[in-house]
Protein 1
Amino acid sequence: MEDLLDHISAEIYQNSYVIVDNFIDENFRKALLEEQINLVNQGKFRHAAVGKGGQKQVRTEIRSDEVLWMDADDLSPLQASYWAKVEEIRKVLNQRCFLGLRSFEGHFARYPIGSFYKRHLDQFHAVPHRVVTVILYLNDSWTSEDEGVLRMYFSQEDGSERYEDILPLGGRLVVFLSGEIPHEVLPTKKERISITGWLRNID
Ligand code: OGA
Ligand code: MN
């Protein structure tokens, strides 16, 4: 974990993002996935909203995933062990990148077949406190034919833009600066399961 934390903080410092494969082991991934599928089957997921506070609204033409927010005061043992890992990331990013990260918030996300999330930034006027986005994919198997990629956009020195497509492979962790990297989830051809969270500069 030490080397990994060094790697994560160095990449965030230099490139504003990092992708870590096999961030969690297979047993842990399967257990988290099973827990999430049970919650889906209990009808606990809701259409995700966009915006914040009074401006919060369900806009399925912008995003059509379903989410279940985790309750920091009522985490399952599995969720708590994932939060403990994120806490390590929070600390190292504060030490090495001086980001002033104070808390984490996160939700499970389920993208049913055909769902997507149009291009956006995770930090915007309504949610200024999200500094670092942390996504963990839980899918059993994924190939390029399943689509549903995370497409991240990068502006280049000549003013043009390039993008990188990231498959939501189980156990893969994606970390990036919430205010710097526009991204989208392209329509998925298979149910797509993840935990998405944000390290914030408020408590
Ligand atoms: C989000 C998001 C990307 C993904 O929930 O804000 O952009 O790959 N998710 O799930
Ligand atoms: Mn996002």
Protein 2
Amino acid sequence: MTKEEAKKLLHNPKTSYSRHKGIEKTAEDYCIGYKSFINDAKTERDAVRYAIDTATKNGFTPFSSKKAYKAGDKIYYNNRNKSIILAVAGVNAEAGANIIASHIDAPRIDLKQRALYEDSGISFFKTHYYGGIKKYQWSALPLALHGVIIKKDGTPLDICIGEDENDPVFYISDLMPHIGKDQFDRKLGEGILGEELNIINGSMPFEDDEDESVKLNILRILNEKYDITELDLINAELTAVPSQKTRDVGFDRSMIAAYAHDDRVCAYPSMTALFGLDKTPESTAVIILADKEEIGSYGVTGLTSDVLRHFLMDICVSRSVSYTNFIRNSTCMSADVGGAYDPTFSSAYEAKNSAYLAKGVVVTKYTGSRGKGGSSDASAELFGKITRCFDAAEVDWQTGEYGKVDQGGAGTVASEIAMMNIDVIDVGVPILSMHSPVELASKVDIYTMHLASAAFFALK
Ligand code: MN
Ligand code: MN
């Protein structure tokens, strides 16, 4: 057998660098926009603001259930400032929708409702972490505070402190190793306990060293700056996220280190693909940037809510087509990150069925844990349809699942989409150090996710 004949029989995907000569230059340019997005939009509220701004510049208008929509119309539906659906009405109203569902929430440290307290001359926030984190990774880091406070008269006060280089930041302390004997004996998962994730926010007393005078001084500063009191901090949603900006990684600058690639690394390409449509697609193109994925998609801004269903129903009413027929013709790409193979921790992976950096988007048939539990297992038919679509558009793809069997697992919004009777498959960017304060992704994979999203909108 010749080498060429053997090549035809075997399937050994190469890196995008060797499959598409020069792709690193295009990827580099593409990632300039991505880096600016993730530096600007660290929470779901920030990401929704970004999406509305950018959509408006691209001719999108807010959805109204009273309007009749026609092919080519560009609309968005803002779900409570925490999630958003954007759509371009397709040429064929009955052809269903090609939907890309990603999420814009990410693991972080939320403030409790009664957060502010003082202990031993230091002012702190009590917190309750959000999402699946290794808690010990979140101490001894500069943190920024993001969120909203609803004032007594109902007006929202947006908070963002710690992102400008002249801003102060916040900080969770860790015990020095010198006296860490007892802590070193803890298990890794207990290195820092949930109730030890206390955020330091001040240390200067108000006038005298009275009880709570440091806390009082913080309240004085907040009152002067924002006209708020301790009570207002309860009517609020405040969260701490790593304050660092993205950085290129490696002598070759081939990767990006950033907070919360998961899942903005799929949300951003879904936006650039939608905004970049050069002609009205045959099927309606829809993207949803969901909230609450990291805590099970529950809540009105998560995908267990009826928000996407109702939006599509309204679109069908406005275009006078049957919702159930529309849904039957629809397909969804659940766009979420995959775990990239990490040779340093190889024993957690099964190398043959892992995704690798720089080999393109990872198409995942099933997620779940302990025998695929909780997973939406995509059919072979759908897997074939998606990979044919990617091949036709020369989109580099690979397969991979989360680690070796019974090592753990993960979930995505695929199961929520499947409940709507929509064919759904997971496609995403492979990530290293997922859910840590600084995750790692390959630039060519991020760009390939854009190509995959664009190809998906043309899926028939
Ligand atoms: Mn995710
Ligand atoms: Mn995640």
